[in-house]
Design goal:
alpha/beta, Rossmann fold, OB fold (Dihydrolipoamide Acetyltransferase, E2P), five-stranded parallel beta sheet, five-stranded antiparallel beta sheet, 6 helices, 12 strands, 30% helix, elongated
């Protein structure tokens, strides 16, 4: 169901940490991993154009630390910090993080942190997530149910919204329309394509 899928992002400079977190995420039906970043700058660039529900964020990374990344983001997603250094624990909560995981991350501790994060996210979604996308096509206003959208394709300063029955060409950029779509339901898989997670059958 739509309200049971939460998109997540891993940000860590260690491949071994990605391996562990990916295994944990794959076993959790509530989570969908949409991106893996190996430094904070890559994650910052991704989050400027994409919305996710949850970040698994390493603290100690070269050039830009995980905590510095949170400072750079205007509205950071719910964040679970992952690190091998326990001395950051108290400082990390000043950044509004949901939980703090020490490496190596155990399954039981991972599940507890995710349950806490999703409980916050569910409340936010219930209050804020829209069910309808309102667009203007050739001077006419259309209300499109989000659950009817299959995917969206970019054409420069326009996008084409595809539903099972018809398509809509709208004068808006891909980045602009991403900000109108809930991250739990849509993911940008390519610079020109946004897909509805409810329509994904295989990855």
């Amino acid at each position: 169901m739509i309200n049971q899928t939460f998109t997540c992002l891993i940000v860590d400079d260690e491949p071994a940490a990605h391996y562990v977190l990916c295994n944990h995420i794959e076993k959790n039906n509530a989570l969908l991993l949409v991106k893996q970043c190996y430094n904070a700058l890559e994650a910052h660039n991704y989050l400027k154009e994409n919305v996710v529900d949850l970040i698994f964020l390493d603290i100690d990374m070269p050039e830009i630390s995980g905590l510095e990344l949170l400072q750079l983001l205007k509205n950071p997603p719910k964040t679970i910090l992952t690190t091998a250094h326990s001395e950051y624990a108290l400082e990390s909560y000043d950044y509004g993080v949901v939980d703090y995981l020490l490496k190596p991350v155990s399954t039981s501790r991972f599940l507890k942190a995710v349950d806490r994060a999703l409980s916050y996210t569910k409340i936010t979604k219930a209050e804020e997530e829209p069910e309808i996308l309102t667009v203007k096509v050739d001077g006419r206003i259309y209300d499109i149910l989000l659950k009817h959208i299959c995917y969206i394709q970019s054409y420069g300063n326009y996008v084409k919204i595809f539903t099972p029955t018809r398509s809509y060409v709208v004068a808006i950029t891909t980045q602009e329309i991403m900000h109108l779509l809930p991250g739990s339901q849509f993911v940008r898989i390519h610079k020109s394509f946004i897909v509805s997670l409810t329509r994904v059958q295989k990855i």
